[in-house]
Design brief:
The complex is a heterodimer of chains A (about 100) and B (about 375). Chain A has about 100 residues and is an alpha+beta fold. In chain A, about 30% of the residues lie in helices and about 35% in strands. Chain A has a single domain, classed as SH3 type barrels (Roll). In chain A, strand 1 and strand 2 form a beta hairpin. Chain A is globular. Chain B has about 375 residues and is of the alpha/beta class. In chain B, helix 2 runs parallel beside helix 12. Classes of the chains: A alpha+beta (about 100), B alpha/beta (about 375). Chain B: It holds the Pfam family HypD.
């Protein structure tokens, strides 16, 4: 919850609600990009962002993304984030 | 040199550790009379234990683990209210998974779920919004929990619900903010704090200005830090150098992510949606002025406190004492080390937590339990 997780913006999926698709270590996830959309939504495609509970909170560079991911892996937090995402997908379907 | 394998740049780590030892010497700090540095953020606490930084740094330096773990400071009466909401038949209660195992006075959300309450662990408030869209005949309540890293996401979700005029979505807002408890700890005459390692991602949202009072009014250094072990060592060194040089400033070690003025869009969304509560209860710390956020009148339709007539100051008594033998309050304020609590590892484990500090991996007790026994060989 505190550390967030880095992801790369793949496409803008909804211009009206500021939603984008991000690639988080191979997992595609819907993220809200309102907080990082200063230069326009389309400029975000390909950028790396730090994602907190589904919201991109800062634009970072690729090297920082990699360093952050390594730290999250070492702390076991990356696994926790992915588990939370998958658990949430199940919760949406009422399968828990 | 086990630690050498753990660090991305062992040479830099060794250099920083040597510099830290040098400044600790210059300050005349010793095991008996150490310098006390508080890392505010639970993520930093986790990293310090994971990398054994408390053992690699000199004995004249002591880390005090701060209140920056939102699950750890969640009072039992708030958990009780979550359970009460979740047990209403019309409600789908959505929460981050971290909150599930926090003990209430009668049960945790995990126990309530096992007994049949419709509780869903969501990754994001976006998923709670989607659940509300898919279940128009149910009331979806999102448990707003966390510091400034999660407050903007809840605020933006409330704004989104308002723009869609959703009638079945509300937020049980228990968001809290970092600066007020720091002020409360500095005002506590029993606390000995010489400087702070400031939270990285909270500062990414709020910037560095909100910490100015720490340097200006209390004369203590604070350095906003990243999460890598090298970041932490660098930040500790910066705090110690300020002390040695007789400076008290707000410095930003994590400028590659943290802008001095934070994230203006997040700040604006939070200002639009929330207002500070006059006071709010923190587990282990008691009532702290202006430390909690509530939803403003203009978004009252999305405020679960009003919708279900529950929440802070309503119904149940405000203060519930900790379970017998639980020393979370003393650990939280640095009076006791986790292992000095009589229940540590006995009546209180991560599997069966008695106190909140054992629940989250960001809690000092859970981190100590997981990594405390790891012996790192000293440098060279």
């Amino acid at each position: 919850m505190c550390l967030g997780i880095p992801g790369q913006i793949v496409e803008i999926s909804d211009h009206e609600t500021n939603l984008a698709l991000a690639d988080v270590s191979g997992v595609r996830r819907k993220v809200n990009v309102t907080c990082v959309a200063g230069e326009g939504l389309d400029a975000l495609v390909g950028k790396w962002v730090l994602i907190h509970v589904g919201f991109a909170m800062a634009i970072i560079d690729e090297a920082e993304a990699k360093k952050t991911m390594d730290t999250l892996n070492a702390l076991g937090e990356a696994q926790e984030e992915f588990e939370a995402m998958f658990e949430s997908d199940r919760a949406m379907e009422g399968r828990t | 040199m086990k630690y050498a394998e753990e660090f991305r740049d062992p040479k830099a780590a060794k250099g920083l550790l040597a510099q830290i030892a040098q400044v600790i010497d210059e300050l005349g700090a010793t095991k008996e009379k150490p310098v006390h540095i508080m890392e505010i953020c639970g993520g930093h606490t986790h990293a310090i234990f994971r990398y054994g930084l408390d053992k690699l740094t000199p004995e004249g330096l002591e880390f005090i683990h701060g209140p920056g773990c939102p699950v750890c400071v969640l009072p039992m009466s708030r958990v009780d209210e979550c359970v009460e909401l979740a047990e209403r038949p019309e409600v789908i209660f959505t929460t981050f998974g971290d909150a599930m195992r926090v003990p209430g006075t009668k049960k945790s959300l995990l126990q309530a779920k096992a007994e049949g309450a419709d509780i869903r662990m969501v990754y994001s408030p976006l998923d709670a919004l989607e659940l509300a869209r898919r279940n128009p005949d149910r009331e979806v309540v999102f448990f707003g929990l966390g510091f400034e890293t999660t407050t903007p996401s809840t605020a933006l979700s409330i704004q989104q619900a308002a723009s869609e005029e959703m009638a079945n979505f509300s937020v049980f807002c228990n968001h809290i903010t970092v600066p007020p408890p720091i002020k409360a700890l500095l005002d506590d005459p029993h606390m000995i704090l010489d400087g702070f390692v400031g939270p990285g991602h909270v500062s990414m949202v709020i910037g560095v200005e909100p910490y100015r009072f720490i340097a200006r009014d209390y004369g203590k250094p604070i350095v906003v830090a990243g999460f890598e072990p090298i970041d932490l060592l660098q930040s500790v060194l910066m705090v110690l150098e300020q002390m040695r040089d007789g400076r008290a400033e707000v410095e930003n070690q994590y400028s590659r992510v943290v802008q001095d003025d934070g994230n203006p869009v997040s700040i604006a969304a939070c200002d639009d949606v929330y207002e500070p509560r006059p006071t709010f209860e923190w587990r282990g710390l008691g009532e702290i002025d202006s430390s909690g956020l509530r939803i403003r009148e203009k978004y009252v339709a999305f405020d679960a406190e009003t919708k279900f007539s529950i929440g802070y100051g309503k119904g149940a008594p405000r203060f519930v004492p900790e379970p017998e033998g639980c020393a979370c309050g003393d650990v939280m304020t640095g009076r006791l080390k986790p292992i000095q609590c009589p229940q540590f590892g006995k009546g209180c484990t991560p599997e069966m937590p008695l106190g909140a500090l054992m629940v989250s991996s960001e809690g000092a007790c859970a981190a100590y339990y997981q990594y405390g026994g790891v012996d790192l060989e000293p440098a060279e």
